[in-house]
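P.,

For your records, the input lines for the assembly:
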Amino acid sequence: MTQPIITLRNVTKRYGTHTILKNINLTLESGKFYTLLGPSGCGKTTILRAIAGFMSVSEGDVLFAGQRINEVPANKRNVNTVFQDYALFPHLTVAENVAFGLTLKKVAKAEIAERVAKALKLVQLAGYGDRAISELSGGQQQRIAIARAIVMAPKVLLLDEPLSALDAKLRRQMQYELRDLQQRLGITFLFVTHDQEEALAMSDEIFVMNQGEVLQSGSPVDIYDEPINHFVADFIGESNILPAKMIEDFQVAFGGHQFECADAGIPDNEPVEVVIRPEDLTLTTLDQAKLTVTIDTQLFRGDYYEIAATDTLGNDWLIHSVNPAEDGETIGITFRPQDLHVMRFGEKEAEFDARLETYEELEDDGVDET
Amino acid sequence: MTKRRTWVYFIPYGLWLALFVIAPVALIIYQSFFDLGQHFTLTNYNTYFRSATYLKMTLNSVWYAFLITLFTGLISYPTAYFIHQLKHRQFWLLLVILPTWINILLKAYAFIGIFSQAGLANQFLTFIGIGPQQILFTNASFIFVATYIQIPFMILPIYNALDDLNPAFVNASKDLGASTWQTFRHVIFPLTLPGVKAGVQAVFIPSLSLFMLTRLIGGNKVITLGTAIEEHFLTTMNWGMGSTIGVVLIVAMIVVMLLTGDQKTKGGTPR
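Structure tokens returned:
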């Protein structure tokens, strides 16, 4: 493993008696796209500010390439920030904004011009140098803010909800561009957002946060498929979460029936929760049904129907189906064992990972034997 | 219905504007074209622009107003900046505003007491062995007191400009490697310049026409345009000449407004 570029070690931040960050540990490797994801007020921006140097932490260490930088002021750190409201200087032109940091560094004029032109080209705004900031649209300001940061050639780029002010279409387009930019520049991006779609689309690794804690970290697929708890499952994507009981390894009971599942390592008869993603549920005939539900309503979402249904025990179900159903119809739903994901109450990430490892090895062994 | 209502709301302000702004200005302009014998003439302007005394007095006025504005600015910007960083800034700001609630005459008399031969200032100078000195009725004491009186009017707009400044700009500047001083020079000061300009407007014009202080503190050594107007209206009874100087003052006012007005900078209008 390469040297991590940013490490937070046991970082805690308090304002008076209020704790904003609780013992945060995270490691960012060079050249990857990371996302801090969580609802507003979860502390994600605070982490960004701690790394940028706008705020000091109460406890713990902030490391940059192995060096402790807690006391290094913001202007001496080799990280740059794209601010939520862009913070472009209104009294300077586009080119002067982008050149701001380089001018302070006393870089030669010719080199500044060259690097500014290159940065503007990179964000597809070549030739906009002489414009006033107020003449730019929101999306263009966004790009200039990115250009102003990347022209400094930082090791780490911090992005504080940079897309939140853009309309939906532009936001999707910028997601592609940011991802593309990160891969071309090969620098570390730390992106802060409350939008799970953005996080899933762009990240190499996501840190899901709530109330000052990192609840789970992992690749978008891992987090989506194997959320650690109710909060993560609910926050990331749509989900059906049901109270259940672990009968034994690979057997779980909910909705009045017992089903095969892909989870193990949980004590028998422990109360748990089960997550099933709406797109993993398939409508079927009653004789092939694992569960029987009655359709309440359905919404046409363009590429699928979003169906709300109730099962015989009164549990609500959300189903994504390519084909429509009929309101009031009683219909069967089915799913595969691997579509079920069992979550224990109060399980921490380390325990969760350790448990996953034990039975995933077991599964692999099983495959080998056959 | 709605249109008529809106019109009704305008009446108090309209009356005020007509009676106390438009009418007096019109009267002054009208008066400036009449000599002592009530004949319509351009003599007053002729006299004004040909007389070395009047021109020198105008220059003098502008020079002193400039000095007062300069000193006020030099003191007010750092003060406003400092107060803005404080925890109980509203309280400190109140202390700055407080002296403006006291009548200017009272303050002037207070300074006469402080600066007189037996006053506090001279007691102190005597105590450290270099006094007593002539403080009252000097140009320096005039500038000192005028600056003291004008400071709150400069601090307020600058403070408001600092308050309006988005703190993200400061963070962005530091993020891009600027030191505290560089951030101030390249970001904070240019972006709070409108506040400074507003302060200059609020200080420079009234300083041009200060007349009470020139007499009470300056001992009439400095004759400003304000003093001249007062003399013409109350002593020599030459209303025409007084009005002419008034017109000159109004023109100077417009010039200063234009100079310090919100010019569209190349980077667009500041927020």
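Two observations worth noting. Chain B has twelve helices and no strands. The radius of gyration of chain B is 23 Å.

Regards
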